[in-house]
Amino acid sequence: MDTNTAGIPTLTIKLVLLGESAVGKSSIVLRFISNDFTESREPTIGAAFLTKRITRNDKAIKFEIWDTAGQERFAPLAPMYYRNAQAALVVFDITNEQSFRKAQNWVEELHEKLGDNIIIALVGNKMDLLTMQGEISNRAVNEDEIQNLCQQENLLYFEVSAKTGKNIQEVFQAVGEKIPFPTHNVGRTSEHDLTITDDQRIDLESTTVEGARETGGCNC
Amino acid sequence: MAEDRKSEILKEFDPLNQFVSSENDDTVEDVMSKKDDANTQAVEETNMNISAQDMGDEEPFYDFQLFIKQLQTPGASPLVKYTKSFLRNFLAQRLLWTVTEEIKLINDFKMFIYDKFALYEPFKSLDSSKIRNAREGIEKLIMGKLYFRCFSPSLYDTLQKPLDDQHMRDLNDDNTLQEKIEHYRFIGPVMLDIPDTMPTAKLNRFVHLASTELGKINRFKSPRDKMVCVLNASKVIFGLLKHTRLEQNGADSFIPVLIYCILKGQIQYLISNVNYIERFRSPEFLRGEEEYYLSSLQAAVNFIMNLSESSLTIENHKGFEEEYQENLKQVAKEKDEHHKQRKLDVPNELQSNGTLLKPLDEVTNIVISKFTELFSPVEETTQEETLNSERSSKEEDVSLLIKKIEENERKETLKTLQNMFPDMEPSLIEDVCFAKKSRIGPCVDALLSLSE
């Protein structure tokens, strides 16, 4: 936990974005940060790593958002991105069933590798594309199935539209709520720990926020 | 007299410098290296003001010269003593530390000295962003001195014998990667799903520039300076993506182009470099954006390490196989020629060592002595006057020299930018360069926004 210039305690959350390449991962983030131009000083390189601050009660949360390449061939690279992440948005396109299957795999992989130490929000994007033709909807993913997955894996769930902005703020706000502020170590944190291991990749347990295993409901 | 004294100091504090004195003992001889700090030092200094992204809440701030000046003030002399003694022990106690030991020793020392900042002026009264600069300064200072014992390829060059497992693994991985790059260097952008809407000439120009920036990683010793090369290369890639309106796809577009740059770049020791940054960049600095782009580089490198035909988009398998075999022949031929060439060449002591720039010989001596002086605060009043006048004349030499190098870098940057933006008025590019102090990242940004 560090303190920003105004002296408000800030919790930095590393959030990783996973999902197939055409589901709109980056669009969700660009929409999320677009309402706020005060952050323009920060990330300067490009749209793969972005940050945004939100407030929770009288505290500040800073999201560091790590985008991943969604193409299937890059799937094996994901562990380099999600190590030490406290939160993940697993995104799929609600009009594309295949993208939901992939999302399911991501959720399983995250839990398998990181245990319960990560807050996962499942995000169905492109709700603006949902149309009804008489009784038949073009929704490609069964709502019961989503519900089941959320309960089984203890996920947050949101249907959003990066295009219209619907529910975008809500996803991040909900993720932010789930992660507790550390109650100790306000000054020097574990980054000053002398027992830094040779390979920090394997040191996942000790660096994740503790107490992150509170039960999350399904918001669908 | 002054010379004698200097060589004493040199011997004491800088056993890596071979021409320190002729009476070095065997141990020192053993670890001495023909390449030295100053080769890169001069170049590094010109790049000093490339500011790496600030990860915290403070303004980016980095000024190594300022840190050195602070360290030279009398109040800070205990810090200099601690540092010298640490470096001396690190270098003398053992020739080969394992990676784990290196990390532990260096980290412990950093923590120790960071705490001491709170006790001695001028560091004692610095605010947090200035202290950050001092921490960066310490890292750069000690890693510059320990580079040849911590950066795997240099360590191997220095010791000329098998290393411990982890250092050895770096070298093996470098070779494997090098081989993979050679085998797949011919592939086209479409095979990585880089959209074919991207104009080839533009892609090639930016890819060339990005790999050049990334390739500079071998010119620097400090983890931070190496990291800046990674960030600059990433910045150039995003320049291309902005140009071609693919930026909003984030990593989906970035990663394939990064991989493509590595395949076209033929950069040596990439894995050793990445591991070195990860090991010796303080965790407090290696976070946020820095950490992201270093992880992306690692990811791209991993992808190439496991690259096979099945990880590419290939429409014509037969055609691919032919191209692949053709390239293999070409690689073998080049190796053969290279081998012959090396035999013909006059033996060059620096040949086996690709880890450094071509030595700037005239330059080296001046900068080395300057750097060493930075490390030897004057203690005896009797000598002070001579030394001071000597120092100031040296300082002039050095600043002249740095100006010269800066001028060359500036020209180089200007040329690259003109290649990247051929449709643009050269004088306009020059103006932008001037305004942005020839820093690649901001220059590309400004020119992109002008070209729209």
Helix content of chain B: 55-70%
Mean pLDDT of chain B: 77
How many helices of chain B? The count is 19
Q: Looking at the structure, what is the overall shape of chain B?
A: globular
Measured between the Cα atoms of the first and last residue of chain B, the distance is 64 Å
Specify the CATH architecture of chain A.
3-Layer(aba) Sandwich
Structural class of chain A, by secondary structure, is alpha/beta
What is the alpha-carbon Rg of chain B in Å? 23 Å
CATH superfamily of the domain at 165-315 in chain B: VPS9 domain
Helix proportion range of chain A: 25-40%
**Integer tally of domains of chain A:** 1
Query: What is the distance, rounded to the nearest whole angstrom, between the alpha carbons of the first and last residues of chain A?
Result: 32 Å
Write down the secondary-structure element order of chain B.
Answer: HHHHHHHHHHHHHHHHHHH
Full CATH superfamily name of chain A: P-loop containing nucleotide triphosphate hydrolases
What sort of overall outline of chain A do the alpha carbons produce when their principal axes are compared? Answer: globular
CATH fold call of chain A: Rossmann fold
Rg estimate of chain A, integer Å: 18 Å
Oligomer: heterodimer
> And the CATH topology of the domain at 165-315 in chain B?
Glutathione S-transferase Yfyf (Class Pi), Chain A, domain 2
β content of chain A, as a range?
A: 15-25%
